[in-house]
């Protein structure tokens, strides 16, 4: 029985229905918790001798808008010769500002994801908490459990707009105070909202509407040669040995 299987079994036995979903894949365990249960489960994960997840390694936001969709069907549209000249953008974030999505309501769109480490048991655990309302995504703050979550939660608030209820100082941390929107949301345009340049006549910085047309420039190449075959074989040998 692997360590990840032992951890998954303990989680199911300890928390029961509080764990809405528990998956084990590639030696990693992920559990899904409802916001109402997050603080109780987090405290037990930290303080229980069976788990001892004393360290919060990371906390991030996730936007599942467009999840599983792709602009490129690689096996059908790839070439063996080079790069494409670009296509009209169709994926989330690739649009002009006037044609941006409005009133987007996607169930289970936003989630906060915690990455925990137990030094005592040498375990890692991923905890995912979906926000009940995509219009105003709110989850409890875990700063009372792991004080180091403070800056991580500010980053998720800044970039995804997830509000962490109970955070002692929830404000932007990467963008400036006048920034409009949340840059890591999938419906935020990849080209941004405005362009910034210095105007020598006005002798100041000016903000103007974006003039860049959204285009996608990505490789359309699928290569099959010995380099990748060797890498795949070495990776398989590594997993068998460990």
Quick recap of the structure?
This protein has 242 residues and is an alpha+beta fold.
Description of the molecule:
With 242 residues, this protein is of the alpha+beta class. It is 23% helix and 25% strand. The chain has helices spanning 3-15, 38-47, 74-77, 149-160, 226-241; strands at residues 19-25, 28-33, 55-63, 87-88, 110-118, 123-130, 138-140, 163-165, 194-199, 204-209, 215-216.
Keywords:
242 residues, alpha+beta, 5 helices, 23% helix
The strand count comes to: 11
Order of helices and strands: HEEHEHEEEEHEEEEH
What is the residue-mean pLDDT, rounded to a whole number? 82
State the distance separating the first and last CA atoms: 14 Å
Report the C-alpha radius of gyration, rounded. 22 Å
The parts where pLDDT drops under 50 for at least 5 residues are: 83-87
> What proportion of the residues form beta strands (DSSP E)?
25-35%
Q: Provide the spatial order of strands within the biggest beta sheet.
A: 1-2-6-5-3
Give the overall silhouette.
Answer: globular
> What would you call the quaternary organization?
single chain
Topology diagram in text:
Elements: H1 3-15, E1 19-25, E2 28-33, H2 38-47, E3 55-63, H3 74-77, E4 87-88, E5 110-118, E6 123-130, E7 138-140, H4 149-160, E8 163-165, E9 194-199, E10 204-209, E11 215-216, H5 226-241
